[in-house]
Specification:
The complex is a heterodimer of chains A (732) and B (472).
Chain A (H helix, E strand, L loop, with lengths): L1 H17 L5 H17 L8 H13 L3 H25 L4 H23 L1 H5 L1 H5 L4 H14 L2 H19 L6 H13 L2 H30 L2 H22 L4 H14 L3 H5 L6 H6 L3 H11 L5 H22 L7 H22 L4 H15 L5 H16 L5 H17 L3 H17 L6 H15 L1 H27 L31 H17 L13 E7 L5 E7 H9 L5 E3 H8 L3 H12 L7 E4 L10 E4 L9 E3 L10 H30 L1 E3 H12 L7 H13 L3 E3 L6 E4 L2
Parallel strand pairs in A: 2-6
Antiparallel strand pairs in A: 1-2, 3-5, 4-5, 7-9, 8-9
Helix pairs in contact in A: 2-3, 2-4, 3-4, 4-5, 4-8, 5-8, 5-10, 9-11, 10-11, 11-13, 12-13, 12-16, 17-19, 18-19, 18-20, 20-22, 21-23, 22-24, 22-29, 23-24, 29-30, 29-31
Chain B lengths: L21 H11 L6 E6 L2 E6 H5 L6 H5 L13 E3 L3 H13 L10 H11 L2 H8 L9 E7 L6 E6 L5 E5 L2 E5 L16 E8 L2 E9 L4 E8 L5 E5 L1 E3 L2 E3 L1 E8 L4 E8 L5 E6 L5 E6 L11 E5 L4 E6 L8 E6 L4 E7 L14 E5 L4 E5 L5 E5 L8 E2 L18 E5 L2 E6 L2 E6 L4 E7 L6 E7 L2 E6 L4 E6 L7
Parallel strand pairs in B: 1-3
Antiparallel strand pairs in B: 1-2, 4-32, 5-6, 6-7, 8-9, 9-10, 10-11, 12-13, 14-15, 15-16, 16-17, 18-19, 19-20, 20-21, 22-23, 23-24, 24-25, 26-27, 27-28, 28-29, 30-31, 31-32
Helix pairs in contact in B: 4-5
Classes of the chains: A mainly alpha (732), B mainly beta (472).
Pfam families (chain A): Cullin (PF00888), Cullin_AB (PF26557), Cullin_Nedd8 (PF10557)
Protein name (chain A): Cullin family profile domain-containing protein
Keywords (chain A): Isopeptide bond, Ubl conjugation, Ubl conjugation pathway
């Protein structure tokens, strides 16, 4: 302590020698102080900058920097206290204006004071690490004016009041508010945040809490969203007009929280106007608004998505499980396509093609389409229908559109192999009966299936097309080598590769002699050109055109099946035949024969045969003769076979069984493939991997996989691990 | 018209003013060309000067002229001469500086007077930047020699970032600003100084020996302008504060300070402190059979993110050079001459410096032979360059071991009374700095575009700088 004093004393002595006038410092400071007063009183025109600068310089040079610094702070503080009183005195609306005016004056004065004190700013302040003149002037303003007790809350309330007024529709002086908020920003980020932004956000939160409550009680969902959207844009505008740009995120999140996040569930589930209603009534605009607003809050879109998904699943479930609807497969699939189109449109127009929404709607479709085990069949039937007749007169581009849509549905199917089975059957029928409308459309669909499921999936389908093509060539060759056959009945043979086509047990029957001769000729021709092949006749699938002359000379050409032809040809030789005789002569299996006779004798308008007794069903004791009185408006008469377009129950079982049977080798192949690469794997992992590998084709049944594993173990492809029975080991 | 050049003033204050770039200057000239209102008349200490506000705008906002032309002062148009009560001779020099960017001081004006005047106008920075040009080891000229009054030999000289330097003598460090004016000397409990370094233009770190049992010494942070001790760094071992001797220093851009440390018992190694908080953040303990705590040199390698630590002969019997990675406390590279055949040609490493660009460490022996060690190989040997200066015969009485420095692709090596400059990929000798008196150079340092060389005998240091660029 004594040391310190001593040193001080020495410095005093030193100063005295340099500065002649002991009151030099005081005098100089008085000049500067007077100048500061004049500057604040806006009376600076008479001041000499050079003189003031020099005086301030001299004070610092002569080590009175401290006196200058503290003096400047004290003088400025005193002025600001006066100013603060003047601002306090301002009444009502002029308060802000007064504050703003005084702030501008202070800024100008501060600028000039800093000019005078520049040397101090650069040397004394720099080396003592004190705050510089400009920031010091700002913090003095903050402490003496903005934070003075009579101004602080009044200023805040005035500002909040103005904002509230603007929110309720009044017009306010935005320029003034901007100047004041700008002042807060100039005073530093923390001042802006603590003294204005935070209370502003709190007040906004309160305001919107009340308002949103009011709205939700009185408005429906669509109107509420409109209002929320309007408020949000208003607040963003407000930030642009008179707040710091950094406040935008904060105020929007307040509005989002109060107006949307807090009422999310209620809005979405609002009765008669919520999301479900919007979806049902195609309110794209409202849906878009909901999406854009809910996107802003956490879990907002998830909420919308969940409600949409459950609605879609419920709706879809009703659609596919309604027994009424599944009566007509075409109608059924058309309904699915319509729903699909609708949700596509919703996601693209209202939900901005949001991937998560696309996925949600896709997974919902996948969910409910597979609820109905007959979906694969129906989709195939729909395609069948379209390709048989529906596509007439539609432009190629539109055909593509329809097919693409069908492919969308196909993608949802879990049991794609079932679809394949049905598709094969339907395609076979189309090809063999020549019913297909457009080869291009057929091929285009095959290409689509190929890109979707790979070469494997369509190779057989393509094989069917090749067979059709080669058969044409074969026939041309056959008739070319047998020119004598141009007379007499014409035989058209389609040679189908076994395996490519849906196999049906070949049902033999006795063909009429004229035909069987021809058949023999063809057989020898074909086997002559293709050695090592075996031909078997699928008489159950053929058709024949027969010219017939009835009792009164009516000539007709009858289009019948091969079985029907066999039956009708019998009547060339006798007028009356019993069921037993027909059965014996043709050797057609009883159920087929019954159906065949039924369609010849019992269908109104096409009854070319008379039956005794006249009844709907065919009995073993019935007698048949030619219906001489048969008439028809048409020359050509097509006699169908009584067979449903949809397959019969046992047929369905059979298809199902065939599908199951076909799956077995595929499952086994998958197991072996996996085990070959893994060598050792436990049960659960095998099941998981097999399921994954087969997913594009069908959903493998775990019990079936287990059975396949057992079978592979029996055949020494795999073995169980000796120590851990859950592990399987691949045997090379 | 004048106001226009200072419009930006109200918006933002910058602490330092800079000479406007040439382009800017041209722009301003163009806009004011042929405008007679642009002219300004000064009466400085009785002499009349006439100039333009364009010229004065070069002084920047943060100067006397910047403040003078602030819109708030009713100056424009000036009614009469503006009187300034200052030295007219110096004003003429400074006005020329603003006009041309060149500093030409007549012999009759003492430097100190000019600096004083420049300080009044806020033009010191302009003077400093005009005084010498960007550093180039091949264009250096001796600008000054400063004689000290210290009793003992010099330990170290360190260049500051803006042209100043500090010189360690025994237990005191003398601090000089860029005008080579000496400030208050600094000391840490008057303990022997081992190393010293600049954190920035205002902060110096000093490392010193400990005093037995007193807890003195260690490491301290000082203000370069006032010489005040601002902070004393501590070493903690197992949560106990230990007294220690701080050795070589290094700093990095992440505001860390590194120092080799020798404590009472276990605290041997390299300590790390935070420049902002002053707290010890890490300590790399030396492993048995290796030396870190005695290191002669620390060098932070920015690209490799690790610290080079070199302990050299004769401080230890052997040389140890290692690279430490503090992120996983790992010695990522090391080299030592333990076991290598020696004594035949006495090629012992006396200083080492890492050169990240060429992935090598350059070393030097007592005959100023340069050697290189490949950083990419572990356990490589020194590849000595064959250049020999044939001076084994005439060693001075008081030899100083060579020191190395690297600056923007130029390698510097001191030997006896001269400093050699090497350039290019093969480090060809391109220049030699030599001055006849003062004895051997015991240390040198490059920084703030200047080179300081400290001589051992006469207690004098030289300042080398690059002259400003030629007129054409």
């Amino acid at each position: 302590m004594s040391n310190q004093k001593k040193r001080n004393f020495q410095i005093e002595a030193f100063k005295h020698r340099v500065v002649v006038d002991p009151k030099y410092a005081d005098k100089t400071w008085q000049i500067l102080e007077r100048a500061i007063h004049q500057i604040y009183n806006q009376d600076a025109s008479g001041l000499s900058f050079e003189e003031l600068y020099r005086n301030a310089y001299n004070m610092v040079l002569h080590k009175f920097g401290d006196k200058l610094y503290t003096g400047f702070i004290a003088t400025m503080t005193a002025h600001l206290k006066d100013k603060s009183k003047l601002i306090e005195a301002a009444q009502g609306g002029s308060f802000l204006e007064e504050l703003n005016k005084k702030w501008n004056e202070h800024n100008k004065a501060l600028e000039m004071i800093r000019d005078i004190l520049m040397y101090m700013d650069r040397t004394y302040i720099e080396s003592t690490k004190k705050p510089h003149v400009h920031p010091m002037g700002l913090s003095l303003w903050r402490d003496n004016v903005v934070h003075s007790p009579k101004i602080h809350s009044r200023l805040l309330n005035t500002l909040l009041d103005l904002v509230h007024k603007e929110r309720t529709g009044e017009v306010i002086d935005r320029g003034l508010v901007r100047n004041v908020t700008k002042m807060f920003m100039d005073l530093g980020e923390s001042v802006y945040q603590d003294d204005f932004e935070k209370p502003f956000l709190d007040a906004s939160s309160e305001f919107y809490k009340v308002e949103s409550q009011e709205f939700i009680e009185s408005c429906d969902c669509g109107d509420y969203l409109k209002k929320a959207e309007k408020r949000l844009t208003e607040e963003i505008d407000r930030v642009g007009h008179y707040l710091d740009a950094k406040s935008e995120d904060k105020i929007t999140s307040v509005v989002e929280k109060e107006m949307i996040a807090n009422h999310m569930q209620r809005l979405v589930l609002m009765e008669n106007s919520g999301l479900v209603t919007m979806l049902l009534n195609d309110k794209y605009e409202d849906l878009g608004r909901m999406y854009n607003l809910f996107r802003r809050v956490t879990n907002g879109l998830a909420t919308v998505r969940d409600v949409m998904t459950s609605h879609l699943r419920e709706m879809g479930k009703q659609l596919v499980t309604d027994p009424e609807k599944s009566k007509d497969p075409v109608e059924f699939v058309q309904r699915l396509l319509d729903e699909r189109d609708k949700y596509d449109k919703i996601t693209s127009t209202a939900f901005g093609n949001d991937k998560t929404f696309q996925n949600a709607s896709n997974s919902s479709f996948e969910y409910f389409i597979n609820l109905n085990a007959r979906s694969p069949e129906f989709i195939s039937l729909f395609v069948d229908d379209k390709l048989r007749k529906g596509l007439k007169g539609i432009a190629d581009a539109d055909v593509e559109v329809v097919l693409d849509k069908v492919m969308m549905l196909f993608r949802y199917l879990q049991e794609k192999d079932v679809f394949e089975k049905y598709y094969k059957q339907h395609l076979a029928k189309r090809l063999l009966s020549g019913k297909t409308v457009s080869d291009d459309a057929e091929k285009s669909l095959i290409v689509k299936l190929k890109t979707e499921c790979g070469y494997q999936f369509t190779s057989k389908l393509e094989g069917m097309f090749t067979d059709m093509k080669t058969s044409e060539d074969t026939m041309r060759g056959f008739y070319g080598s047998h020119p004598e056959l141009s007379e007499g009945p014409t035989l058209i043979v389609q040679v189908l590769t076994t395996g490519s086509w849906p196999t049906q047990p070949a049902v033999p029957c006795n063909l009429p002699a004229e035909v069987s001769v021809l058949c023999e000729k063809f057989r020898s021709y074909y086997l002559g050109t293709h050695t090592g092949r075996r031909l078997s006749w699928q008489t159950n699938m053929g058709t024949a055109d027969i010219k017939a002359i009835f009792g009164k000379g009516q000539k007709h050409e009858l289009n019948v099946s091969t079985f029907q032809m066999c039956v009708l040809m019998l009547f060339n030789n006798s007028d009356r035949l019993s069921y037993k005789e027909i059965e014996q002569a043709t050797e057609i299996p009883a159920p087929d024969l019954k159906r065949c006779l039924q369609s010849l004798a019992c269908v109104k308008g096409k009854n070319v045969i008379k039956k005794e007794p006249m009844s709907k069903d065919i009995g073993e004791e019935d007698l048949f003769c030619v219906n001489d009185k048969f008439t028809s408006k048409f020359y050509k008469v097509k006699i169908g076979t009584v067979v449903a377009q949809k397959e019969t129950e046992p047929e369905k079982q059979e298809t199902r069984q065939r599908v199951e049977e076909d799956r077995k080798p595929q499952i086994e192949a998958a197991i072996v493939r996996i085990m070959k690469s893994r060598k050792i794997l436990d049960h659960n992992n095998i099941i998981a991997e097999v399921t994954k590998q087969l997913q594009p084709r069908f959903l493998a049944n775990p019990t079936e996989i287990k059975k396949r594993i057992e079978s592979l173990i029996e055949r020494d492809f795999l073995e169980r691990d000796n120590t851990d029975r859950k592990l399987y080991r691949y045997l090379a | 018209m004048i106001e226009d050049y200072f419009l930006g003033k109200n918006k933002k204050k910058k602490k330092s003013s800079h000479l406007l770039s040439v382009q800017n200057l041209e722009f301003i000239l163009l806009t004011s060309m042929g405008n007679s209102k642009d002219r300004i008349k000064f009466n400085v200490g009785g002499r009349i000067f006439e100039t333009t506000s364009t010229t004065l705008a070069n002084a920047g906002h943060d100067s006397f002229f910047g403040a003078l032309f602030d819109d708030d002062w009713n100056l424009s148009p000036p009614k009469e001469d503006l009187f300034i009560d200052r030295n007219p001779d110096c004003f003429a020099v400074l006005l020329d500086l603003l006009r041309t960017g060149d500093l030409n001081v007549p012999a009759n004006i003492p430097e100190r007077l000019l600096h004083r005047e420049a300080s009044f106008y806020g033009l010191l920075h302009h003077v400093r930047t005009a005084k010498w040009g960007p550093f180039d080891g091949n264009r250096l000229r001796l600008s000054d020699s400063v004689k000290g009054i210290a009793p003992g030999d010099g330990t170290a000289v360190r260049a500051g970032p803006d042209g100043g330097c500090c010189v360690a003598h025994g237990s005191v460090v003398h601090v000089f600003d860029w005008m080579l004016e000496e400030h208050c000397p600094i000391n840490l409990d008057y303990q022997r100084v081992n190393d010293v370094g600049w954190i920035d233009s205002d902060n110096i770190v000093l490392s010193a020996c400990e005093k037995l049992g007193r807890g003195d010494g260690g490491m301290g942070l000082f203000s370069s302008s006032t010489g005040d001790l601002r902070y004393k760094f501590q070493v903690c071992h197992e949560n106990q504060v230990k007294s220690y001797t701080a050795g070589a220093l290094s700093f990095n851009q992440d505001y860390k300070i590194f120092s080799s440390c020798k404590g009472r018992s276990n605290e041997y190694g390299v300590g790390v402190w935070d420049q902002i908080t002053g707290k010890q953040t890490d300590f790399f303990y030396e492993s048995p059979g290796w030396s870190l705590g005695d290191a002669d040199k620390l060098q932070w390698l920015n690209g490799m993110n690790c610290l080079l630590v070199a302990t050299l002969f004769p401080r230890k019997d052997n040389c140890y050079i290692s690279l430490l990675d503090f992120r996983d406390k790992n010695m990522v590279w090391s080299w030592s001459d333990i076991g290598s055949p020696m004594a035949i040609d006495e090629k012992r490493v006396r200083d080492a410096i890492a050169m990240e660009d060429s992935n090598s460490i350059c070393v030097v022996n007592e005959f100023e032979d340069l050697g290189f060690i490949d950083l990419r190989m572990y356990g490589g040997s020194v590849r000595w360059s064959s250049r020999s200066r044939l001076m084994k015969s005439k060693m001075p009485d008081e030899p100083c071991y060579p020191k190395l420095a690297l600056h923007e692709g130029q390698l510097f090596s001191s030997m006896n009374d001269s400093i050699s400059v090497f350039c290019g990929p093969d480090w060809v000798l391109t220049s030699r700095l030599r001055r006849s008196y003062g004895g051997s150079i015991c240390d040198f340092s490059i920084g703030g575009d200047r080179l300081f060389a400290l001589h051992s005998e006469e207690n004098v240091f030289d300042v080398w700088e690059t002259p400003p660029s030629p007129i054409i």
